[in-house]
Amino acid sequence: MADRIQIRHATPLLPGERSATDPSRAVTLGVMGGGQLGRMFVHAAQALGYRTAVLDPDATSPAGLVSHAHVHTAYLDADGLARLADAVDAITTEFENVPAEALRRLAERRPVAPGGDAVAVCQDRAAEKAHFTASGVPCAPYALIETEAQLAAVPDALLPGILKTARLGYDGKGQVRVADRAALAAAWAELGRVPCVLEQRLALAAEVSVIVARGADGTVVHFPPQGNLHRDGILAVTTVPAPDVSPAQAAEATACAGRIAASLGYVGVLCVEFFVLADGALVANEMAPRPHNSGHYSIDACDASQFELQVRAMAGLPLVAPRLHSPCVMLNLLGDLWFDAVGRERTPDWAGVLALPGAHLHLYGKAEARRGRKMGHLTITAASAEAARATALQAAAQLGISAF
Ligand code: ATP
Ligand code: MG
């Protein structure tokens, strides 16, 4: 029964048409989660002419503030899920920690893309790594640690390593770098002895990510690989085209991401993060079942953004390969920029930054700036990669972001 209901639309959901399930309203697209990714999804859906609805427990969520409708309940609230399903014609998600069970329940009522089963794989690092391996994509050597016996049996070759909680980590949270067995045991205790993976710490020559969109008919399109710089476990700078990546590596990363999506039966936008090792080998790190911070540049530098492709995939519209029309650099704007050197609050110099050529400012409407909190991003587009980088360095200096 569930399988029959999950069959995708025979025809696309067209913007502005009457809803087939509720002719009293126009076609509406729903999103689980109200953060900045949901906000940019809502912007893209509305630009195409759709109505939108967001489910998020926070009354002032970035996406809820701009959506036609906002259901304020917990993700597993039965009434909230029913209200969201009533209000929409298809549903997507904007962050991977929406309980997969909520997506499965919604799928009994409406098409959900990506599906709960695919999201469940992305929510668990052990399942994710097993999926990479099954898709023929290498990942860092690792061991699963759920018991004292598994802790004791960890091979020496994995140290020094990084201990990561299997679930609910993001932006470097839930991770501890460990040099030896004593540090490993202490770190596992510190993390509450929850299921973890220990990964060998690799020497990274570079980091790249690839975003693909896959339709229900199996069509896959992709963005060019993005070069990513992380600071303190948080994405700081994305550069496209990715420097330090050969055409062969770019082709391999893209093919790997496409295989990972296809073998999940995935519908929607998927991001796969890769490490590039010193010998040029590519290793998959993790994946996100949604648009990704490293793809925000696509709004301003491509002829279709990752959010537009998310809309198209869930609505059954054609997926057309996006084209990068301008080299670019994206800077993440963390809450730290809202404080001066002695910790006083300030407003960053937006007027100065917007005086730079090719500067595209995106702020997410979050009321309170906190250190490490993603408040917005700035994309610099230019006619050449060199010019984009030079202007981005100027913007970084104006805002107080360290040079890269
Ligand atoms: P996010 O969800 O924000 O991408 P996360 O908290 O899920 O981050 P990871 O992507 O696993 O964390 O790791 C964050 C960063 O830490 C990586 O981008 C990389 O810079 C570094 N890192 C993670 N694992 C390894 C590893 N095995 N070897 C070397 N560096 C690593
Ligand atoms: Mg990551």
Automatic annotation (TrEMBL):
The keyword ATP-binding applies. Residues 129-315 form the ATP-grasp domain. It catalyses: 5-amino-1-(5-phospho-beta-D-ribosyl)imidazole + hydrogencarbonate + ATP = 5-carboxyamino-1-(5-phospho-D-ribosyl)imidazole + ADP + phosphate + 2 H(+). Its EC number is 6.3.4.18. Keywords: ATP-binding, Ligase, Nucleotide-binding, Purine biosynthesis. Pathway: Purine metabolism; IMP biosynthesis via de novo pathway; 5-amino-1-(5-phospho-D-ribosyl)imidazole-4-carboxylate from 5-amino-1-(5-phospho-D-ribosyl)imidazole (N5-CAIR route): step 1/2. ATP binds at residues 125, 164, 169-175, 199-202, 207, 230, 285-286. Belongs to the PurK/PurT family. PANTHER family: PHOSPHORIBOSYLAMINOIMIDAZOLE CARBOXYLASE, PURINE BIOSYNTHESIS PROTEIN 6/7, PUR6/7. Homodimer. Catalyzes the ATP-dependent conversion of 5-aminoimidazole ribonucleotide (AIR) and HCO(3)(-) to N5-carboxyaminoimidazole ribonucleotide (N5-CAIR). This is N5-carboxyaminoimidazole ribonucleotide synthase. The lineage of its organism: Bacteria, Pseudomonadati, Pseudomonadota, Betaproteobacteria, Burkholderiales.
